[in-house]
Q: What sequence folds into this?
């Protein structure tokens, strides 16, 4: 594969933004797959945008979605009408575009069974609908249908329309592109929160409510971990303190961040945004811009250290809670990536949840490079 090409632009009209993107690329250069991300300001025009792109580029295969924020090499676009796109040439028949229509994946298997059986894909870029309450289960199911395939991607973020692009326009479930072993990638995840206090065990729970941790009232343990200042004014914890659920079997200390959704002072209960079981480990965490920056740089250096060739291009999926909210204005998060990796062609968006391997994360950044 030759180096990929990217284009990005912000403009009042989508036609102007699209033409500006295309003007940044050589359309005579071979390409057979496009990645397309547009801010939700252009969401209503996604049908026209995709149709015109196919006509102008003569590329039939496209994947992507809408986002409140989108990004590319060294640049972030938030709350403005913008488009980013990347064109790549992949080995013939090495990828397969898909969209799911039901939870049990019967349609997915029947539609793609020939390609799946002959290619045994190990990697996919996926986009999901955050309104689907079973989306986390669908992510696991898709990975299993691929033979424990590794997924990267994110959940669409939008104020109104939750469109995904998978050759056509879809929504409601999962969509994306699967790759066979001829497409080599490297991928890493970076956390946006830092754990605090000790690791605890849930010794009593009800659905998503923590009743007891280490055989003590959950709120007592929570207050000790967050410190006296926050414990005296629990109104401050929203958006600052989270629950961290360690990923079982992870050798990198990964954890799933989930929001706090309620505190019952009288009964000393803590509710989180995830169903939990007795015996599950849990840690509390806080959003920390310094730690997030350090972890991002550490991840980038690790992925760079393992490179034996210059990446052709990449995709990056970051949480809406990151970007300007965590790293500062002026595209700081993407500029950090650029400062370590150089001008690798890169596109992506700021998601309602990030996908890595078989799991749905929050407050993370997921970077994948095509080699």
A:
């Amino acid at each position: 594969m030759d180096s990929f090409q990217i284009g990005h632009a912000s403009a009042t009209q989508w036609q102007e933004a699209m033409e500006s993107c295309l003007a940044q690329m050589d359309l005579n250069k071979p390409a057979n797959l496009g990645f397309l991300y547009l801010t939700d300001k252009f969401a209503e025009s996604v049908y026209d945008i995709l149709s015109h792109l196919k006509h102008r580029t003569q590329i039939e295969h496209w994947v992507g979605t809408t986002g409140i924020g989108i990004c590319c090499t060294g640049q972030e676009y938030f709350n403005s009408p913008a488009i980013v796109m990347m064109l790549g040439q992949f080995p013939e028949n090495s990828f397969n575009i898909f969209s799911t229509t039901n939870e049990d994946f019967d349609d997915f298997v029947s539609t793609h069974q020939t390609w799946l059986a002959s290619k045994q894909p190990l990697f996919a870029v996926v986009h999901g609908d955050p309104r689907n309450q079973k989306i986390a289960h669908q992510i696991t199911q898709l990975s299993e249908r691929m033979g424990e395939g590794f997924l990267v991607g994110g959940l669409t973020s939008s104020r109104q329309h939750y469109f995904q692009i998978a050759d056509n326009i879809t929504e409601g479930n999962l969509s994306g592109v699967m790759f066979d072993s001829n497409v080599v990638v490297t991928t890493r995840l970076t956390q946006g929160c830092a754990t605090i206090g000790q690791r605890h065990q849930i010794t009593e729970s009800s659905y998503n409510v923590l009743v007891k941790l280490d055989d003590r009232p959950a709120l007592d343990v929570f207050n000790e971990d967050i410190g006296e200042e926050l414990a005296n004014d629990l109104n401050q914890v929203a958006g600052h303190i989270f629950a961290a659920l360690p990923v079982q079997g992870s050798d990198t200390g990964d954890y799933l961040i989930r929001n706090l959704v309620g505190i019952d002072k009288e009964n000393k209960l803590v509710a989180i945004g995830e169903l939990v079981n007795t015996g599950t480990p849990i840690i509390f965490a806080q959003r920390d811009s310094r730690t997030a920056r350090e972890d991002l740089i550490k991840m980038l250096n690790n992925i760079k250290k393992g490179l034996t060739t210059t990446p052709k291009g990449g995709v990056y999926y970051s949480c809406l809670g990151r970007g300007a909210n965590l790293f500062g204005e002026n595209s700081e998060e993407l500029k950090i990536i650029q400062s370590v990796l150089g001008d690798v062609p890169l596109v992506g968006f700021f998601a309602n949840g990030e996908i890595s391997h078989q799991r749905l994360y929050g407050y993370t950044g997921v970077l994948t490079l095509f080699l």
In short: The mean pLDDT is 92.
